[in-house]
Design a protein that fits this description.
The protein is an alpha+beta fold. The protein has five helices and ten strands. Strands 8-1-2-10-9 form a five-stranded antiparallel sheet. The protein has a five-stranded antiparallel sheet with strand order 6-3-5-4-7, sandwiched between helices.
């Protein structure tokens, strides 16, 4: 198999990994499960789970969006995760209908938890009383405006919800947020083998994956111009043999710089920034009039 750099771009997040291009035989299907998953493979599956969440988060949510924690009071606490899922679907259906009437987009990614105890995290606010071994949801929602919190609180209370906590998405901690959202699967396992513990809306934008072939193993990775939070990593897989060498970083878009010329004064700025009807040195209005032929400014 050819050696290549696998470049993943998800919004601001970029991940580069040196490896081989996978080859898939046409028509080949995956065999049925015949044995229980070994611990090493289960570790790898859990790791892939939070990495997948990280990419979906980075590709669709930014600094203006929020992570909401939706809880239940004693009177409306569901008996199990299945019932909690139905309650959440009622809430999201109402929120979708409200935004649809205003022709606004709804993007979300959520998890349902209920096994872990109250804990603290240095990147996020500490768990509250209604999150201590009680069913609750963590939802990442795209933000529309300053009235989002009150609208979401009102809709959640209408389906029997408890208090709500909201924290802004920090683009520098996509990885930590992804691990936080998938922590129960790693700590307590899955209710069903192979069950995915998180869900997302269907209209999320996919991240891009590109393979760049390299001539030899002597190629090294280096940060591109403008890279932020550049970190290299080298990891062994759970089976103890292959090394994974790569790097991750954020790449912000550069702000456009106004273009000037000999006929455009720096003091007034580019023509598009001048007031309508601006009179130039020659007396002609630069937007609406032209100087007569043979007359110079």
């Amino acid at each position: 198999m050819a050696r290549a750099i696998k470049h993943i771009k998800a919004g601001l997040l970029n991940i580069e990994v040196i490896g081989t291009i996978p080859e898939h035989e046409p028509g080949r299907r995956r065999g049925g499960r015949c044995r229980p998953t070994c611990p090493a493979m289960q570790f790898y599956n859990d790791k892939r789970s939070w990495r997948e969440v990280e990419l979906w988060l980075a590709a669709n949510f930014g600094r203006h969006d929020f992570v909401y924690t939706l809880t239940y009071d004693d009177a409306h606490l569901p008996p199990d995760k299945k019932a909690a899922g139905k309650c959440y679907q009622k809430f999201i259906a109402k929120l979708r209908a409200v935004r649809k009437r205003r022709k606004e987009v709804l993007l979300y990614l959520y998890v349902t938890e209920g096994w872990h105890g109250s804990s603290a995290n240095r990147h996020f606010a500490g768990d509250g009383l209604l999150e201590n071994r009680r069913l609750h949801h963590h939802v990442v929602l795209n933000s529309i405006g300053p009235g989002d919190f009150e609208e979401i609180r009102s809709l959640w209370e209408s389906v029997g919800g408890g208090y709500i906590r909201a924290e802004p998405v920090d683009v520098h901690y996509y990885r930590e947020l992804a691990k936080y959202l998938t922590k129960e699967a790693r700590e307590f396992g899955r209710a069903k083998p192979g069950e995915r513990t998180w869900n997302k809306s269907r209209n999320l934008k996919e991240y891009d994956v590109e393979y760049i072939e390299i001539p030899s193993d002597s190629v090294t990775l280096s940060p591109p111009p403008g890279a932020v939070d550049y970190v290299q990593f080298s990891e062994k897989n759970p089976f103890g043999f292959a090394d994974c060498i790569g790097a991750r970083y954020l790449l912000f878009e550069e702000a456009s710089v106004p273009q000037y010329s000999y006929t455009t004064g720096r003091k007034m700025g580019p023509p598009q920034n001048r007031p309508s009807g601006f009179v130039g040195k020659g007396g002609a209005r630069e937007r609406n009039e032209e100087c007569p032929k043979g007359v110079s400014n």
